[in-house]
Amino acid sequence: MALAIRDVHEHDLDAVLALNNIAGRSILALDAAQLRYFYEHADYFRVAEIDGQLAGFLIALRDGGDYASPNYRWFSAHYPSFVYIDRIVIANAYRRHGLGRIFYCDVNSFAEVRVPLLTCEVFLEPCDDVVVLFHGTYGFQEVGQQRMGEHGPQVSLLAKDLPSYAFVRDTYLEHSGLPDLPWLAGRGPQFTHGSQARRLPGSGPHE
């Protein structure tokens, strides 16, 4: 089995959209415009390929954007600097391969050299004990709850401290910046963090 985790390409978007919209109740549906917003503005948007087949994806955004998700906005109101995991989707055929943990290790590595906090939310209605346990064992703690709109589900807002960030900040970010190494790089030239972020039509979290 050959596994690759890489930045999304534009030609992946149709497959990503289809995968998102068959994921079930725990993932809010997207349309093409919403997915295009993520392609143009998400700080982290990577896909997993297994033997050349799209097996999953994870989308995350840094603070400072104009993303309309009520959960992203909750974190924006409470924390000055964070990476927010909007959604992670694994194709049914590739579940139980450990891809969730691989993605979380990867986004953790992306976040800890940029911000002090990794955040996300999980639905409590319906509550999935496997998802709650997964996040707890990965170091997330509940920092709040809210209901998504008047009739939306109750969610648990989770955050994970990234203790390595202080070293990176003091040693690199406050001086010459991160070294020019591939594993430290952000997304490609089609993306620039903080540039003319547009509002996402509607609002929607991840899982």
UniProtKB/TrEMBL annotation:
Coiled-coil region list: none
Q: Which InterPro entries match?
A: Acyl_CoA_acyltransferase (IPR016181), GNAT_dom (IPR000182)
Q: Gene3D superfamilies recorded for this chain?
A: 3.40.630.30
Origin species, per record, is Dyella jejuensis
Domain N-acetyltransferase: start-end pairs: 3-163
By what name is this protein known? GNAT family N-acetyltransferase
Pfam families attached to this UniProt entry: Acetyltransf_1
Q: Which residues form the signal peptide?
A: none
CDD domains, sorted: NAT_SF
